[in-house]
């Protein structure tokens, strides 16, 4: 049996193993834990648990020192309260807590980005499917311990992740990435090593690059002015993937950085040791 931190409280239920964690970062060199919609659960695993899944989507499992962990991305749409994860043993339940995401009201000059016409909607549907195919993929990892992430570009974080957004007064889905205001042409680098699995110029996202880091961990970089990598190219941490721009639906130049874990968009800052 692994040794758990004293700040954890554990209850063994008749039908599941129920964990209640605090939301502070508890594990060096692993993502920060935050049990909220759009957050991450870092779950120590017993030796007899070899598989963890959510809605038939496999969950990333990694080794840190002598302990194995499941790293679970909590969907922004997750309901508060107990959320069950399936394993090859009894289910594991985590307790999802509320989080005070802000609202954001934006004025977009091009009305097509607020109410696209049928042709634009058809284009968006094709692009969304291509991205979803990447987000739902689960490739082997190339690392032995969870990779340390770095900032993809310089600039002050806007803390825009999870904000409920209104474009020209009309409500849209919560913001699923982190915006970093920066000048056009500033370098954007890979925050961790992986393989470039998506390159395109999308309707809403503009010029975009997606990187697969393994086991359902995907990063996406949008609104670029230039793309410096090719589809299928291995990329190392710190290697330039593109340049900051203002393509797609934007109100000014910035980098939109998304992180997807088990097909859930989660707060990218949770991957950084020093955000």
UniProtKB/TrEMBL annotation:
Keywords: Signal
Domain of life from the UniProt record: Bacteria
Annotated ranges, domain M23ase beta-sheet core: 174-268
GO molecular function ontology, one term from the record: metalloendopeptidase activity
SUPFAM superfamilies: Duplicated hybrid motif (SSF51261)
Signal peptide positions on this chain: 1-27
UniProt domain Peptidase family M23 N-terminal: residue ranges: 37-89
Gene3D superfamilies with a match to the protein in the record: Glucose Permease (Domain IIA), Peptidoglycan hydrolase domains
Pfam families on file: Peptidase_M23 (PF01551), Peptidase_M23_N (PF18421)
InterPro entries: Cell_wall_metabolism_enzyme, Dup_hybrid_motif, M23ase_b-sheet_dom, Peptidase_M23_N
PANTHER family, A to Z: M23 FAMILY METALLOPEPTIDASE, PEPTIDASE-RELATED
Record protein name field: M23 family metallopeptidase
């Amino acid at each position: 049996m692994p040794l758990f931190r004293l700040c954890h409280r554990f209850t063994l239920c008749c039908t599941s193993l129920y964990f209640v964690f605090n939301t502070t970062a508890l594990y060096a060199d692993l993502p920060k834990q935050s049990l909220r919609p759009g957050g991450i659960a870092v779950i120590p695993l017993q030796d007899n648990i070899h598989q963890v899944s959510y809605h038939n989507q496999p969950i990333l499992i990694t080794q840190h020192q002598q302990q194995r962990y499941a790293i679970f991305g909590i969907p922004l749409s997750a309901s508060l309260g107990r959320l069950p994860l399936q394993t090859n043993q009894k289910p594991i339940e985590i307790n999802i807590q509320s989080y005070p995401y802000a609202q954001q009201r934006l004025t977009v000059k091009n009305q097509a980005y607020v109410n696209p016409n049928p042709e634009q909607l058809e284009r968006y549907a094709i692009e969304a499917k291509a991205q979803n195919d990447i987000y739902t993929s689960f490739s082997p990892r190339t690392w032995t311990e969870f990779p340390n992430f770095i900032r993809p570009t310089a600039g002050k974080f806007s803390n825009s992740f999870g904000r409920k957004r209104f474009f020209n007064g009309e409500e849209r889905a919560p913001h699923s990435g982190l915006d970093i205001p920066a000048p056009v042409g500033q370098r954007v680098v890979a925050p961790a090593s992986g393989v470039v699995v998506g390159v395109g110029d999308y309707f809403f996202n503009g010029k975009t690059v997606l990187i697969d880091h393994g086991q359902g961990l995907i990063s996406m970089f949008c609104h670029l002015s230039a793309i410096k990598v090719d589809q299928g190219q291995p990329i190392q941490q710190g290697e330039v993937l593109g340049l900051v721009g203002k393509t797609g639906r934007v109100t000014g130049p910035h980098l939109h950085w998304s992180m997807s874990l088990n097909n859930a968009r989660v707060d990218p800052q949770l991957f950084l040791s020093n955000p």
